[in-house]
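so my prof wants the structure for this chain in the tokens format not the other one, which i didnt know existed until like an hour ago. anyway here's the sequence
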Amino acid sequence: MRVTRVLARGFWGRSIDEFQRLSKIAITGEATRVPTAPYILKTFHEPDAVKSVKLMSDADVGGFSHAALDWIPPVATSKPSQSTNGHVRFHGRISIDLPPNRPQIQRTGYAAWRTFDRPRTLFGKGLWDIDPYVYLAMRIKSDGRKYFVNVQTDSIVPTDLHQHRLYARNPGEWETVLIKWNEFVRTNHGVVVEPQTEMLRQKVKTVGVGLIDRVPGDFELCVERIWATNSLSEQDRKEDNRLEEGQLKSKHGDKVKIRWKEDQAERPPT
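here's what i got, hopefully its the right format
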């Protein structure tokens, strides 16, 4: 089995990759203008991609929820429920039963995964700098349950998370979801932190997804890739069948703005 590029690179290989990335930014002048190319944070196109994420559930503390992360190979299809790229399937069953003989455990019914901390390079900690980008983008197929996107930064409080609901417009079909970085809510152990502070967008450590609705039953969420962006590419718009400003005109020839209807962001349960 071929080892993926991310897993195969050693310290010097990662350092060279980071040097090339920083050099490209300096040469092209991206630091002085809005980047147009996407910044890939995580892809699941290769089988070994599942080894680079950490799976969690209440089973870790004696609960009865079950969670699994499987790699699904690409298929040649045009069906909206299937993907032409490899991806991961996050699935299992949520249980809210409390473990016997462990009275200190008062809450169960959750499952999650996140990327592992990125290895160090010659330039220091392996962190993502997403400050030049407006959106976090994800290519997903959801079952419609209440998932949250979790972002961890290199802050002074390591247990802090920045969370946002993962809204799916078309459950059961592949779609691209955009979330504004400045709309994430800072939490700690599921409790909203007050006062809120801005995310350390130059020092993002991990990204992941959690299911914390505590509704017993099966769940399934497929994820193909995660990236930072300032706009959708032509390919993403084509895959998503998405219309944006400038593509539609009124009968008078004026451009029509299309705004996708989204529910108001909900804060994570306490």
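also thought this was worth mentioning. The first strand starts at residue 39 and ends at 43.
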